[in-house]
Amino acid sequence: MTAYLIRNVSVVGGAPTDLLIRDGVVAETGAGLTAPDATVLDASGLVALPGLVDLHTHLREPGREDAETVESGSRAAALGGYTAVCAMANTSPVADTAGVVEQVWRLGREAGLVDVQPIGAVTVGLAGERLAELGAMADSAARVRIFSDDGHCVADPKLMRRALEYVKAFDGVIAQHAEEPRLTEGAQMHEGEVSTRLGLTGWPAVAEEAIIARDVLLAEHVGSRLHICHVSTAGSVEVLRHAKARGVKVTAEVTPHHLLLTDEKATTYDPVYKVNPPLRTAADVAALRTALADGVIDIVATDHAPHAVEDKECEWAYARPGMLGLETALSIALDVLGPQWDLIAERMSRAPARIAGLDSHGLDPAPGVPANLTLVDPAARRVIEPAELASRSRNTPYARMTLPGRIVATFLRGEPTVLDGKAVK
Ligand code: DOR
Fold this sequence. Notes:
globular; 9-stranded mixed sheet; alpha/beta; 22% strand; 2 domains; TIM Barrel; binds (4S)-2,6-dioxohexahydropyrimidine-4-carboxylic acid; Urease, subunit C, domain 1
């Protein structure tokens, strides 16, 4: 195993220092380290962060390997500075058995680019009718702790209650896609002034807020952990703020796109902007940014949702919802938050690692800590070229935009997965 001496790096925004990585861990830190056997990397001007952790990634394997595979998604993740991703269950077949979650977990290990932690479905086939084999998935080699029907809401309150009760035994968490389905039938975009102007059926904010309100009450009643996926409205933030003040064990995520883009994008009719939940108003974006800064929203999660060309480059009404996220998330966070490195480390690495129970991730580089880290050049600016992305899909909403920040290197357990901005394998 090669040793690496990273010189003059700012650890989470601190004064420049050296990091010696050996045998999978950070062996030493401090100015002026020497290690004759180590490969030296000059990291002047770069910031070291604990490797990013994504709680919400769609890897599409098994079933839609034309859109993404565990390997291509893992490569995209590593290039985005991630060392661990949680893979959503809406694959084909659905990850609702020990067999499927073990398959995804094994494919992640074989790719060896990030730790792939499968998420299990809450209900069989995501159909919302019967609980899936949550215990069998928890006991499997994949050690599933997060369960989600993401893409679909667990709309039946009794089923949601049972799921929360079930996972309590092993400190699991239910990650809810909050969307009251009766209120979003036929919805194409956010319900508001723009949808009225365009004549498109709206997805009202209350459809999200009503489910979050119901589920924080259920989580409080049961005493279980609840996580809310892709929070998108100012009203949801208020419900979460209230629930957290009461001590409910609820955590929440926001996506990079909901922090940056608004429903005005729908006026282009470009389906790259179609996503679920939909892009909202500028007032919602402002409320989400405030909530991310003050901790009502715990984490940034990408909802990386690759889609094949034929599923995306078609009429708005027929296009699948979803956008790529892994290779641009850190840049969007930097754009939105500025160089608040401790906040970025907290929202994109430490907190998601804690929620997911990934003990060897989300730890700031320090002696003895597993060397899962990423090096960022905050001064770099790059133009996003879809054809250059490692994802098998091309549905980025940031095409040809100039974004701040560049991932220079990523290390997984002391081995580089990305060096000089390029994937190592
Ligand atoms: O936009 C979305 N795409 N939202 C979801 O909840 C699911 C995801 C997907 O799987 O494509």
